[in-house]
Each structure stands twice: as C-alpha cells, then as structure tokens.
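Limitations

Structures in this collection are predictions, not experimental determinations, and the ligand pose is part of the prediction. Treat each record accordingly. The example that follows, with adenosine-5'-diphosphate as the small molecule, is included so readers can see exactly what is and is not provided: the inputs are given verbatim, and the output is the predicted complex.
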Amino acid sequence: MERVEIILGDITQIKVDAIVNAANPELMPGGGVSGAIHRAAGPSLAEACKKVAPCPPGEARITPGFNLPAKYVIHTVGPTWNGGQSGEARILEAAYRNSLLLARQNQIRTIAFPSISTGIYGYPLHEAAPIALRVFKEEAHNFEKIYMVAYDKLTYQAYTEAWKSLSEG
Ligand code: ADP
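Predicted complex:
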C-alpha cells in the first residue's frame, strides 16, 4: 500500500491519529474546513486553541481532537495568495513541513490534510498541489499513512494529476 493517498471526502469524519486544520493565525473557528472541524470537535476545541494561539503563517500548533474521530488536530496557517511574489510558495511548504514535524514529535503515525490555502485564501490549486505532494513524498517514510483529503472533485483531480507527474518525473 502506498503511504501517501489522495481521497475524496470530509476530513472531520476520518479516523486517523491527527487531522490538519487550515486555520487562521488567531486559531478562531471561522469558515471553510476550520468551521467544519470546530463544529464536529465541539466548543472545547476553541478553548484549547486560545491557549496555543496565535499561529503565524507557516507554523503549526497541536490540540486534542475532542469529539472528532481523530485524537489530535494540528492547526497550521497557509499563506494568503497575493499574486505569488510574496513568499507564498515558501510559506505553503513550511505549513506542510511544520505540521508533519509536529506530528512526528507527538508519535503520530496516520495523518490527514485538507488542501491548505486553496479555499478562502485563494492559492491556485494547480500550483499548490505539487508543493504539498513533494513534502509528503519526502516525509512518507516517517508515517504509516498521509492522506490528502479533497472535499470536491476538482481538488481531487488536481492532486491526483500532480501525484502522477511527480511519480513519472
Ligand atoms: P484556506 O483559508 O486555507 O484556503 P479553506 O477552509 O477555505 O482554507 O479551504 C481549504 C480547502 O478545504 C478547500 O479545498 C475546501 O474546499 C476544503 N474543505 C472545506 N471543508 C472541508 C472538509 N470538511 N473536509 C475537507 N476539506 C474541506
């Protein structure tokens, strides 16, 4: 079995050691995947987030998962897209890398990511996908499973295509 897997689904339903939240620097519930994770985890998550906030772009924080099937939530903040010349790629890569580093430090073996920054933060999907997957490929040997959880078909296709290109190239 491949250690990296791209799936279509809802990250709040996945039973793994940790799910990753595409958070804002204040670690407030907000919209998008973050809102969904907070709703599913219950209000204790926001309380726990207050204690570890703020989280600058590219960094990561960990909390329990509370009512989620996942034991932990790793909160990371991706870059806001601003044309691509403002260090966005470097920050996006750091968000994935620092999430996986924090996971390793907490003995996490199975982890699921959403597509960081490609929603409200506006990062172009086809540019974001290879950045995420290159980090996964490098880090895969440290984990049992790394899932990329796409919430819609376009996201699923973008990551699947990027994964094929990486494997061929
Ligand atoms: P950002 O602000 O980092 O762009 P968003 O939450 O707006 O974060 O979007 C990130 C990605 O998460 C988008 O592809 C969005 O469709 C997806 N998403 C939203 N809800 C869920 C969910 N329940 N599970 C997985 N992905 C989700």
